């Protein structure tokens, strides 16, 4: 259990140092993936996969929002 907490801390520290713009969606995904992976016996792999999926979902959400904002008609 201690090894998992140390690894999770190192992953979160690395993500935090990478910058907020790059980490959008990664922290939440890594936390959820790490917990789910821990239950399956693969905490580190779960955290890494959760980070990737969280980042992908954040990018999709940003793209959708920017398209919706760009398509909105301007009122004058």
Summed up, what is this model?
86% of the residues lie in helices and 0% in strands. It has 76 residues and is mainly alpha-helical. The N and C termini lie far apart (61 Å).
From the structure above, extract its key features.
mainly alpha; elongated; 76 residues; 0% strand
Explain what you see.
It is a single chain. This protein has four helices and no strands. The N and C termini lie far apart (61 Å). The model has no long low-confidence stretch (mean pLDDT 76). The protein is mostly helical and 76 residues long. The longest helix has 29 residues, at 43-71. Helix 1 (2-18) packs antiparallel against helix 3, helix 1 runs parallel beside helix 4 (43-71) and helix 3 (26-40) runs antiparallel to helix 4. The protein has one domain (2-64).
């Amino acid at each position: 259990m201690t090894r998992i907490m140390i690894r999770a801390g190192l992953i979160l520290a690395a993500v935090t140092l990478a910058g907020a713009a790059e980490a959008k969606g990664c922290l939440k995904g890594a936390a959820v993936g790490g917990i789910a992976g821990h239950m399956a016996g693969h905490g580190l792999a779960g955290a890494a996969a959760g980070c990737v999926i969280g980042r992908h979902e954040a990018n999709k959400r940003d793209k959708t929002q920017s398209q919706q904002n760009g398509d909105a008609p301007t009122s004058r």
